[in-house]
Specification:
This protein has a domain at 21-79. The N and C termini lie far apart (45 Å). Helix content is 56%, strand content 0%. The protein contains 4 helices and no strands. Helix 2 (32-40) runs parallel beside helix 4. By secondary structure, the chain is an all-alpha fold. The relative contact order is 0.17. The chain has helices spanning 2-15, 32-40, 42-51, 65-79. Keywords: Membrane, Transmembrane, Transmembrane helix. The chain crosses the membrane at residues 32-51.
Length: 85
């Protein structure tokens, strides 16, 4: 059990060292509305990614939580999540 706690702690410390590239600092990241769109086209992007590895399903870097929320709304809306028959 102690090994797992130490391993998890080491991962957290290493993740804290991560940073974005300096040349992407001037890049205007996609936001909420882009997240909705990317969520809606995610199934098609997945199929395209199987044939072309340059196609990404999820935009990176993005604006953070707002993009994530839009992505979840977009993917949930297209898949019919939460709809009761």
């Amino acid at each position: 059990m102690v090994r797992y706690i130490l391993a998890a702690g080491a991962l957290v410390v290493l993740a804290g060292c991560a940073h974005q590239l300096a040349d992407l600092a001037a890049y205007d990241p996609p936001g909420f509305l882009s997240g909705i769109w990317h969520g809606m086209i995610a199934p098609f992007a997945l199929i395209a990614h199987l044939f072309d590895s340059t196609v990404r399903i999820y935009a990176f870097p993005n604006s953070g939580g707002w993009y994530d929320l839009g992505f979840i709304i977009g993917i949930g809306g297209i898949s019919g999540a939460g709809v009761r028959a």
